[in-house]
Amino acid sequence: MLETNRYKQNSNIMIGTLPNEASVIHLLMGIDFAGTKESLLQTARNYFENEFNKKYSSVAEDAIKFYFTGVDGVDASVAALSLFGDLGFHCPSNIFAHNLAKSNKVFRYVFAYDAPMIFNFSCEHLSPCHGSDIFFFFGNFLSNSSDIEVSDDWIRLISEFVKGNTEIWPPYYVTKSDFVVPFYKDYRGPNYTKSIKVGHRNIQCEFWKSAVVNIA
């Protein structure tokens, strides 16, 4: 799609992720992110060898250096979650947002509200996790007044977007020199005042972009 430029033009597009997207990989593939550092390193190596092929082994070693250098214990679990989350969700989302922004208004967000643990299965080290935002999108199964307030605010923002309101937060901005400024909303609730940021996981995604180009 990106190679042929066959995608929407002159539209408003919203793209979002959550901090711990790798939790869904745990559910679908049975990967244990709570193991020792050595077991997590082997998990990364096995993933690249089994899901792709052995020519990606050098990428696995580079990724291990990038994510695991200087970390241990719980931090190693967070590193593994980050590796798989970036590879499978954050960086592909950024790539789509970057390309679509050249002919559309792209509104990027990260739903980072610290949802209660009841929603965050396998997310004790990095939250919220994949799917935790669903309850807030629809306002279901929420009893805590703070959570209900967040849900009401989030539904309001999404509803405004659907109605065509492009002032909800700054979209990606393309300069006259064709440089894309990747604004995004770091959503942590209605009272979080520093929510507009630039470049979600940009350094990590530059790593993956370089790694993929070098083996293509």
From TrEMBL:
Ranges for domain Carboxylesterase type B: 9-176
CC per GO annotation: extracellular space; plasma membrane
GO biological process: acetylcholine catabolic process; choline metabolic process
Keywords in alphabetical order: Glycoprotein, Hydrolase, Serine esterase
Gene Ontology MF terms: acetylcholinesterase activity
Residue ranges the record marks as coiled coil: none
InterPro entries: AB_hydrolase_fold, AChE-related_enzymes, CarbesteraseB
Family listed: Belongs to the type-B carboxylesterase/lipase family.
Name recorded for this polypeptide: Carboxylesterase type B domain-containing protein
Natural source organism: Dinothrombium tinctorium
